[in-house]
Amino acid sequence: MFKYFRSAIFRKVLLVLLVTALFPAMLLGWMAVRSGLQAGDTSTALSRAALIEKSQEALELRAVETAASIAGFLTEREADLRTFALITPNNQAYLAFSDSHVGELWGIAEGGEYREIVPLYRQLTYIDLEGQEIVKISEGEIAATSELNNLTDPGGTLYPNETYYQEALALPPGELYTGRVTANFLTREAYDSGERYQGVIRFAMPVYQAGQLSGVVVLALDVRHLIEFSSHIVPNGERFAAAPDTSTGSYAYLIDNRANTIAHPNQFYLIGLGTDGEQLPYVTSVEHIGTHPIRLDLLGFIDENLAGIHAVAMEGDPGSIFYIWQEKEKFVAYAPIPYFSAEYPAPGGFGWIGIAAEVNAFHSAATQVGATIQGEVQALMVNIVIVLVLGGVVSVPIVWLLARGIVTPIHQVTAAAQKVEQEDPDLSVLDPLLKRSPNDEMYTLANVFKRMASQVYHREATLKETISQLRIEINEVRKSKEVADVVESDYFKDIQQQAREIKKKKSEDE
Q1: Residue 76 contacts by C-beta under 8 Å, 6 or more apart in sequence?
Q2: Residue 231: is its pLDDT beyond 80?
Q3: Number of C-beta neighbours around residue 226 at 10 A
Q4: Can you name the residues that pair with 357 across neighbouring β-strands?
Q5: What interhelical angle do 441-487 and 359-421 show, nearest 10?
Q6: What is the mean pLDDT of the chain?
Q7: How far is it, in rounded angstroms, from Cα 490 to Cα 501?
Q8: Measured distance CA(230)–CA(252) in Å, rounded
Q9: Percent of the chain with pLDDT over 70
Q10: Main-chain dihedrals φ then ψ at residue 157, nearest 5 degrees
Q11: More confident residue, 470 or 49
Q12: Which of 159, 250, 413, 471 has the fewest beta carbons under 10 Å from its own?
């Protein structure tokens, strides 16, 4: 087998056949892999763009739906207040009203996940024209006489310096007052220790009896029920959760019409009063987060896009925007809450809800698609390598046989030529070629070569015979010439003369 490798023709033919057999397959394999990789990249990019677009649309729709639900909830509180104003002020009637207006709170505590039914209103109060609380239900219980305060004193309200009584007293008949979220600020330290945000939104209106102003009724909505609308939204994965994982950057929050944060999974962002009963200053640097409340339009030091969302949202139309928060690219879909009052005028109304998510979260599905495609491409590469190896294993013997089939006849003709060179008439080395089909080129070559060799042998024999005859004739001429040369020589003539004289003398002697 190795003798063939000593043949330059065999090596060249083998190389050419291997290249022509394997190179196209390798080229096609490379093109397939390259096309697969490009298709994977293109599919991933297109999937990401499509998923971002669809996610934007889905989150915007979800924000609009949630904003409408919040507006409906606040409007229902107005209806509750109007109904409450018709009740004759007494403890039992007010307590029954409180017990019939409850809501569920869902969350996670140290003991795990919980669901709790609590009253919608932390306080239900009737106040006379002197500012004195006459009837009050507080935290679902009838307030004792000692707990009834005069609200002309700024310290008599649940949170210092509330003015809902004065605001409502000045309203015309049928009008009502909707206050702002009022609460004590919850620091991060307190939040981490287990405390939770407590606050109220006051709904108040004047009460008239027989056409005469008789007092003011007030419902203090527990703000936790408002927070419930946003605190369970999960933009990706499950639709709702007991508490979103803030580390993912995907959650919802509420901003009022003054850009105050009034609902957020990190409750130390929320608006709140200091220990002196005054509104705390807002966060102006990252170091203040956790010790001061966050006002969104003042967060330009983090990202101008983030600070600009509020102004756009308060124009009254839903939308979405990208911004950077804690070095992560985020996306927020926002929708204004269409609840309007003197405190919350059109077009922005009560404020807006934002549903935020990290952009990378939108890419997860596309990344999975890309990973699947990459996996398929890798599998394709493996299969191509296997096919190439198997093709090599199969093609090498075939190419070997083809190369040998090409080179062997050449060797046989070469051997025949060497026979001719050695004047050996035995050309049996050509017999295998002469057994091939007459249409075979090597048969034709061998046949022509054998005839040519026969003619060479015949011509050589004729030439040899001619040469032999020429040699004889040349010898005879040479001999004749030599004899003539001898006869014509003086020496020969002297000898002839001496011979004649000797012969003559002999005759005379006889």
Answers
A1: none
A2: yes
A3: 24
A4: 331
A5: 30
A6: 82
A7: 16
A8: 5
A9: 73
A10: -85, 165
A11: 470
A12: 471
Task: Give CA–CA dist 202/426, Å, rounded.
Answer: 125
At 129 the three-state DSSP class reads coil
In DSSP terms, 103 is beta-bridged to: 118
Give the number of other CB atoms < 10 A from CB of residue 28: 13
Could you read off the pLDDT of 331-376 as tens digits, one per residue? Answer: 889 999 999 999 999 999 999 999 988 776 655 655 666 667 667 6
Instruction: Flag the least confident range among 118-132, 185-199, 207-221, 314-328.
Output: 314-328
Least Cα distance to 97 among 86, 108, 113, 107 occurs for 86
Nearest to 446 by CA among 462, 459, 470, 430: 430
C-alpha 141 chain-centroid distance: 56
Q: What are the pLDDT digits (tens) for 254-269? A: 999 999 999 999 999 9
Report the relative pairing of strands 133-138 and 141-142 from DSSP bridges. antiparallel
Rounded Cα–Cα distance for residues 45 and 38 (Å) = 10
CB atoms inside a 10 Å sphere around CB 302? 19
As given in the structure block, the two tokens for residue 76 are 């229902």
For residue 396, the tally of other CB atoms under 10 A from its CB is 15
